[in-house]
Amino acid sequence: MSIDLSAAAGFMATHARVLDRRRFQLLVGETDAAAVLAALDAYRNPDGGYGWGLEPDLRSPESQPGAALHAFEVFEDVPGPHARALCDWLDSVTLPDGGLPFALPLTVAAGTAPWWAGADTTSSTLQITAISAASAHRVPDVAGHPWLDRATRYCLDAIEALDERPPAYILAFAIRFLDTVHDVHPEAPGLLRRLAGYVPADGRIAVEGGTEDEFLRPLDLAPLPGRPARELFTEDVIAADLDRVASSQQADGGWTVDYAKISPAGALDWRGHATVQAISLLRRNGRA
Hints:
Elements: H1 5-15, H2 18-27, H3 33-41, H4 65-77, H5 83-93, H6 114-117, H7 126-137, H8 146-160, H9 168-181, H10 188-196, E1 205-206, E2 215-216, H11 218-221, H12 235-247, H13 264-284
Antiparallel strand pairs: 1-2
Helix pairs in contact: 1-13, 2-3, 2-13, 3-4, 4-7, 5-8, 7-8, 7-9, 9-10
């Protein structure tokens, strides 16, 4: 099943923020890494962290762990000079047990989702720590950074302590973390096998507290071919999910998301981000 890159380009020009337009251009060979990093810098704060709506449902300007995750997504594709400074900032807000709080106190609550605005700022959460560490591990510039070592240890211990199926996003992000560190931490393979017992064969997991149509699917847990997490699913299940992603391109050329829309700007930001992520995913899997 093919996608329409020309229509996607039109969607991005019409609706997407500059960062995602630059990321799309990089995917199709129309710009370079420097342009992408310049767009990312618009969200950077003097403390080395990121805010300003880089996480589309968290519009507050101060640096936030949720925004750091999206910065690492960019650094995975285009390693930049500020990746280690971001780790320095994360180290400064990491709690004594090595984990990150879901969010830090907001200076501006307008336009922000309640799960960010009402987050416990004093306790570590596996959800945000696992996906941030997983993404950071794929950025060569931050290998061996003290924050990443602390976060990795926290995640391994927190996953070991799970004694029942965690909520959907925690399960998905823990699996992605274990997949990333599978080859370098000896306990990771066993933990991944244990979490596999919580995943249905079709990989379709309802998101607790989400919209009626909000589910995580196989490629949310195992996006990369050739990695251990892919062994959680049959080839037919992965092929069907790739078909689903390809067929989800909308009539306007972009992709959309199935979770709650919080603000007009955030809803469009998510669509631009989702479009880049979908095309990148399909390309990595030989489908675009």
